[in-house]
Amino acid sequence: MNLKVKIGNLELKNPVMTASGTFGYGPEFEDFIDINRLGGILVKGTTLNHREGNAYPRMAETPSGMLNAVGLQNKGVDVFCKDIYPKIKHYDTSIWVNVNGSTIEEYIETAERINELEHIPAIELNISCPNVKEGGMAFGVSCPSAVAVTNAVRKVYKKTMVVKLSPNVTNIAEIAKAVEAVGADGVSLINTMLAMAINAETRRPVLSTITGGLSGPAVKPIALRMVWQVAQAVKIPVVGMGGIMNAADAIEFLLAGATAVQVGTANFIDPTVTLKILDGIEEYMHRHGIKDIYELIGGLKLN
Amino acid sequence: MNLKVKIGNLELKNPVMTASGTFGYGPEFEDFIDINRLGGILVKGTTLNHREGNAYPRMAETPSGMLNAVGLQNKGVDVFCKDIYPKIKHYDTSIWVNVNGSTIEEYIETAERINELEHIPAIELNISCPNVKEGGMAFGVSCPSAVAVTNAVRKVYKKTMVVKLSPNVTNIAEIAKAVEAVGADGVSLINTMLAMAINAETRRPVLSTITGGLSGPAVKPIALRMVWQVAQAVKIPVVGMGGIMNAADAIEFLLAGATAVQVGTANFIDPTVTLKILDGIEEYMHRHGIKDIYELIGGLKLN
Amino acid sequence: MTNSILPKKRVEDLSIIENRILNEDYFVLEVESQHPVENIVPGQFVEILVNDSKNTFLRRPISIYDVHPQRNTFELLIQIVGEGTQHLSKLTQGQKLDTIYPLGLGYTLSKAGSKVLLVGGGVGIAPLLYLAKKLHQNQVEVHILLGGRGKGNIIETERFSEFGKVYVSTNDGSVGEKGLVTEHSIMQNMNFDMIYSCGPDPMMKAVARLAFKSTIECEVSLENMMACGIGVCLCCVTPTTKGHQCVCTDGPVFNTRKLLWN
Amino acid sequence: MTNSILPKKRVEDLSIIENRILNEDYFVLEVESQHPVENIVPGQFVEILVNDSKNTFLRRPISIYDVHPQRNTFELLIQIVGEGTQHLSKLTQGQKLDTIYPLGLGYTLSKAGSKVLLVGGGVGIAPLLYLAKKLHQNQVEVHILLGGRGKGNIIETERFSEFGKVYVSTNDGSVGEKGLVTEHSIMQNMNFDMIYSCGPDPMMKAVARLAFKSTIECEVSLENMMACGIGVCLCCVTPTTKGHQCVCTDGPVFNTRKLLWN
Ligand SMILES: Cc1cc2nc3c(=O)[nH]c(=O)nc-3n(C[C@H](O)[C@H](O)[C@H](O)COP(=O)(O)OP(=O)(O)OC[C@H]3O[C@@H](n4cnc5c(N)ncnc54)[C@H](O)[C@@H]3O)c2cc1C
Ligand SMILES: Cc1cc2nc3c(=O)[nH]c(=O)nc-3n(C[C@H](O)[C@H](O)[C@H](O)COP(=O)(O)OP(=O)(O)OC[C@H]3O[C@@H](n4cnc5c(N)ncnc54)[C@H](O)[C@@H]3O)c2cc1C
Ligand SMILES: Cc1cc2nc3c(=O)[nH]c(=O)nc-3n(C[C@H](O)[C@H](O)[C@H](O)COP(=O)(O)O)c2cc1C
Ligand SMILES: Cc1cc2nc3c(=O)[nH]c(=O)nc-3n(C[C@H](O)[C@H](O)[C@H](O)COP(=O)(O)O)c2cc1C
Ligand code: FES
Ligand code: FES
To answer: Label partner for C34 (CA 20 to 30 A): which of A256, A274, C100, C232?
Structure first.
């Protein structure tokens, strides 16, 4: 049974990855699972400089989902390279860094540093974070700005580069095509959806930032539609995510055209969920007599 | 205690309305509630000509929500005027017709017919239906086309005209401002979100139309954010909806800036829910010593 | 299909009187109402809210299996197929069932003296018991053919035999005649005035074809994905000679002449 | 705060041994583990998945109330405040509790011979019982002040009195001294080597201020909105002298010198 998938020049041992910002750097899950079984892990969103992130409260529970307004809290790319990378570089899985910036220059500089790390074969260029005042989602909601960042980072980053798209747009396929045209090796989607929670009793927003990003099963039907639309529109691989909680969900994304999937919020509910999803995909393939995962990818049957 | 709200020249006895396509024409609920207590009802989306709608299956259950792909099944405006209107015109509530079209001409003609009905004080111009091949959402996802329909219908429709906006856009506030500029008396939002469901076992889309519209509590945080953004951007009243299941949800929309709310999918779960919401709002106002509903509208407290 | 004045629809927290487990797949809930149930028509159904279940958002439609006006209760025969029915199977006496009922149009009752056949497949037998009872009360000669994949799917035959002659067929022949219901010997001699059916679509279509050939009227009860159950969402449509109709309010019982089944 | 090697975190379906209802607001669940529990540190907590509840998507963090290594169980003291805790209150012996544990850093245990004060408010007394037990085992002189709004919020005093001297204060004076915990007579003579606290934020801040004035070390256990409980979502942060730290992994117990309180 073949579970291997290719994204750019990169081969993943299977299509099950973790989503950035929901898996820390990996060590946090060592008590729960064998990380080396994963297809890949995305480390927490990384910026050029240290960021404290937004003020508390940063989280709200919503029907079948949650809002977050973390705001890319991280210690900056140098601390990542110096202190964190050495602790995770031995993992026998594909470790991608989720790269962020307030300006194109910051994206470039961060990507350049990551480019030097031998055991990081790919970056995910995050042009879709809804929780920062500057940069972030602003880059991801129009073609010209998405192209500008992608193009600039493509010039300095030599390995596999996947661009993470924002769902908060009228036409996500158009933006996917635009970044494909300037050298993205793949696109990943969806990031969180801009949303809001209010406490009726206190008459205040629940989050310190008023709005935040919605994730979890609530967004799955929207994510699946977007992955389907984008997969029709581009030739590069699509990495699908948004509300994946179990193997059936993951298979739905594969059928819609995703070459790999990322599991995000589900890690909070069950830190062992990624391996259950991997096992579930294998069991499904076995049950349906599927020899190669590529039979599932884009395998949606239409009459 | 004042519960009356104004939209255009129209006064509603309270801010609790029903959402189009989820309440039939009203008589379907006579066994369950006293319709005359409602602030208003929106009848099923109406077109110039009879429409059979999309093929079965048209529905999928999703986490905290549902997809529909009804596709504006209705008997056409003439049957509405001749057969349905006489049965509902006596209701002591504000009856609005949700007007749809594949072309601007169809919108105009439909609105002209409705304009003649004495007991219909308002229309909701639906430029956001995601479930029809022509027209529908296509009008609602760009400013020029939204302006074109609104402008054209404004010329022939003399009573209160509210434009129903699509959430499937990058910047909903911009579209709200555009239709405000050409004479909309209010905007209502959100219509359903374009989404998709796949049956992993059969490897087929669940809906005959592949994609459909997501509604229910799953979309509430997104709807609330959009109502908040639009209420900041326009001076005309905003009618808020999307996943309202109870009085607390409705109050959240009022706080975010909605002058009235519409209850949709919740009617399927509990056909008496609208009156529970109305009672709940009154109870809340009593408990918080609020004399006028306008103290709640846009009353979100920010530090 | 019936045109008699239908009882008022209501939302009510019904009390569970009993949960009778038939086997690992089927159970019968008997629920008590605060309102008269005697006007419920065979073929009508209820919409149940499954509380305390994470993944059931919409209500679940279930046929009314039998009605007991004396103790003001009715029964529901349910097959466990997913999370909703799984949760319902765990309910116990004294718990409440949040229910909208009675919904839909039921079967047309044949006249006294006529001879009819009821064909049920799997859990599709559910709406047929109360129908058999009412027909029997009306002096109709009732024949009942119950089909299923195997022995485990043939349930409640004793209940049916109170109201008519019961025949059984299973795909694997583990009980009754072996084969499809349409291959059963009773179907070879079609001297009925009316056929009523409920079960999987292919079965009902085959039964309808046989009925059509013998120019016997045939009513079937359809199962569609429903969101509201009260005719307002327009999700549960089926194509008919009059265009799309709602299974929940124009049905679930349809005369097969009206359906676009060949 | 403790630096001892922490037990491994795990996800486990724990068996409920007992659900002891204290009154309409509080209950104690005792759960049995398949793995050794003796290394759990006072102040650590668990994350519980509330099954069969429509509106609880995330797990619920609950402190570990007491640990019984002999029978390999631990207890949770829970206050009913919303849908999640409401559902948990209905669990019964033999049911399972899907739990991630043990989580977070616990309290620093004082040295033998020292004299300490534990101040708990409301359900904030939860992490203090196991702390009192461990301190008592370590030959520490333990004084425990339990505060609450009224009589109904003062619970489990007998359990605490096994491990130290118990004082009570209530806002309405219905039991113990009347007033805030910081107004209690024991707080007027601050001859303690260490103060441990858990309860509502304003209470802990007031306690911390008193401790600070008397230059006594003070550790508090914070309650923040948590999504993951394992340090990866970065939602549960609190501002500290070292910037934003996670309550779930850098705490929940913090030395108040580290917190940016006053
Ligand atoms: C008018 C009507 C009367 C019915 N009467 C009965 C009855 O008396 N006894 C009984 O056991 N069942 C009856 N059903 C079917 C019953 O509604 C479904 O089995 C039930 O909704 C499944 O819920 P679940 O949560 O257990 O399964 P889910 O997890 O929702 O689904 C499990 C499987 O069942 C299918 N399913 C779900 N809902 C429906 C539906 N509405 N119609 C058809 N298939 C569905 C799904 O596609 C899926 O394959 C009736 C359906 C209708 C429309
Ligand atoms: C480290 C830690 C340890 C805790 N230990 C205990 C304990 O031992 N016993 C106990 O009864 N409770 C404890 N809590 C609080 C407990 O987690 C919440 O009361 C519970 O999550 C509420 O769930 P619910 O579904 O019943 O209420 P919800 O319906 O979710 O909320 C009801 C109310 O509680 C508030 N709330 C919800 N979650 C939290 C939270 N994580 N922190 C603070 N307030 C919250 C909400 O804002 C709301 O006002 C602890 C919290 C933390 C962070
Ligand atoms: C708490 C939290 C933090 C996140 N941080 C990041 C981030 O740093 N970078 C990023 O690209 N996406 C981030 N995301 C988005 C996820 O990677 C993912 O796109 C999204 O949550 C949808 O997937 P899910 O529904 O499976 O969680 C974050 C999501 C959550 C819930
Ligand atoms: C079954 C169904 C049919 C609908 N039909 C219409 C329609 O005809 N016209 C329209 O403007 N909106 C229609 N809607 C959208 C609703 O009016 C509403 O905008 C949306 O469902 C969000 O609200 P809710 O989450 O409360 O349902 C329909 C929604 C559903 C679920
Ligand atoms: S289920 Fe809504 S119309 Fe039939
Ligand atoms: S709750 Fe996720 S980091 Fe603390």
So the answer is: C232
Q: Are D87 and C54 inside 8 Å of each other by CB?
A: no
Quick check: C248 and C231 in contact, CB under 8 A? Answer: yes
Whether the Cβ atoms of residue B200 and residue A252 lie closer than 8 Å to each other: yes
Task: Determine the straight-line distance between the first and last CA of chain C, rounded to whole angstroms.
Answer: 20
* Across B137-154, average pLDDT: 91
pLDDT in tens, A166-217: 999 999 999 999 999 999 999 999 999 999 999 999 999 999 999 999 999 9
Query: H or E element: which one contains A179?
Result: helix A172-181
Q: Taking CB atoms and an 8 Å limit, are A271 and D230 in contact across chains?
A: yes
**Does the pLDDT at position D4 exceed 60?**
no
Please tell me whether residues C198 and C237 are part of one structural domain.
Answer: no
Res D262: pLDDT? 60
Residues C207 and C227 in one domain: no
- Cα separation, B137 vs B192, in Å, equals 10
pLDDT score of B3 more than 90: yes
Count structural domains, chain D: 3
At B62-103, the pLDDT tens digits run: 999 999 999 999 999 999 999 999 999 999 999 999 999 999
- Dump the DSSP string for A35-65: GGGSSEEEEEEE-SS-B--PPSP-EEEETTE
Question: In B, which residues are within 8 Å of A251 by CB distance?
Answer: 200
Determine the distance separating the centroid of ligand 4 and the alpha carbon of B18, expressed in angstroms. Answer: 10
Q: Residue D250 domain-assigned?
A: yes
With the most atoms of ligand 1 within 8 angstroms of its CB, the residue from C81, C85, C90, C97 to mutate is C81
* First-to-last C-alpha distance (Å) of chain B: 28
Mutating to test ligand 4, I would choose from B70, B75, B124, B192 the residue with most ligand atoms within 8 A of its C-beta, which is: B192
Omega of the bond prior to A41 within 30 degrees of 0, cis? no
B264 CB within 6 A, ligand 4: yes
Which chain A residue has its CA at the smallest distance from B226's CA? A195
State how far the Cα of A197 lies from the Cα of A218, in Å rounded to an integer. 14
Mention every residue, 6+ apart, whose C-beta is less than 8 A from residue B40: B12, B17, B18, B93, B94, B95, B96, B122, B260
D184 and D241 in a single domain? The answer is no
Helix, strand, coil: what percent of chain C each, to 5? 20, 35, 45
Each residue's pLDDT tens digit, D42-87: 999 999 999 888 999 999 999 999 999 999 999 999 999 999 999 9
pLDDT digits (tens, 9 = 90+) for A69-97: 999 999 999 999 999 999 999 999 999 99
Helix runs in D191-235, H state only: 201-213
Per the structure, the complete domain to which residue D15 belongs is given by 10-103
Strand partners, B188: B164, B239
CATH number of the domain that residue C121 is part of: 3.40.50.80
- pLDDT, average across residues D125-137: 97
- Residue identified by tokens 């009235």 is B260
A116-140 pLDDT, tens digit per residue, is 999 999 999 999 887 777 777 788 8
Instruction: State mean pLDDT over B180-193.
Output: 97
Mutate which of C234, C236, C249 to test chain B, going by most B C-beta atoms within 10 A? C234
Is the pLDDT at B279 greater than 80? The verdict is: yes
Residue C135 lies inside a defined structural domain of this protein = yes
pLDDT at residue D189, as a whole number: 84
Parent domain of B93: 5-54+71-194+214-295
Structure ipTM: 0.96
- Tokens representing A200 are 């009726």
Look up B129 and say whether it is catalytic.
yes
Alpha helices of A7-140 — where are they, by DSSP H? 77-79, 85-88, 104-115
Is residue B303 scored above 80 in pLDDT?
no
Contact A142, A170 (CB under 8 A): no
